[in-house]
Specification:
By secondary structure, the protein is mainly α. It folds into two domains: 87 residues, Hypothetical Protein Yqey, Chain: A, domain1, CATH 1.10.1510; 51 residues, Arc Repressor Mutant, subunit A, CATH 1.10.10.
């Protein structure tokens, strides 16, 4: 069973158990899949679906930050709940130690020595660690290792 079928099954299960929050969150996700399929006229692979879920999680995190700053705890909780529903479909994130090790390997491959080489390192690291670590975490780790 691929990732999309799993999500569709989870929507059905949420409907049966009358879990409206989960049902609605997963329906938003499936509508995002359909929108991309229509716009780009292609069938989505699991990698494409993971990228869409990551985008949705990032949007929810950004919105949650704004709601927190505005003191809107009711809306903040909705965003955090949706993130919690989406995260099980994402690959496990690397720990800080493993992320640092992976970036050290990339730095060695590229031959980077100063912060001026950050672009080369980020390009390769982003490709190798796609789905395993957030771009912001990669960026911070690369900066700390190159300075």
């Amino acid at each position: 069973m691929n990732l999309r079928e799993t999500i569709n099954q989870d929507v059905k299960d949420a409907m049966k158990s009358k879990d409206t929050k989960k049902r609605d969150a997963l329906r938003l996700l499936t509508s995002a899949f359909k929108q991309i399929e229509v716009d780009e006229r292609k069938d989505l692979s699991d990698d494409d679906i993971i990228k869409i879920i990551q985008t949705q999680v990032k949007r929810r995190n950004d919105a949650a930050t704004q709601y927190k700053n505005a003191g809107r705890d009711d809306l903040l909780q909705i965003e955090l709940d949706e993130i919690a529903f989406y995260e099980p479909y994402l690959p496990a994130q690397l720990s800080d130690e493993k992320l640092t090790e992976a970036i050290k390997e990339v730095i060695a491959k590229v031959g980077a020595t100063t912060i001026k080489d950050m672009g080369k390192v980020m390009g390769m690291a982003s490709k190798e660690l796609a789905g395993k670590a957030d771009g912001k975490r990669i960026n911070e780790c690369v900066k700390s290792l190159l300075t």
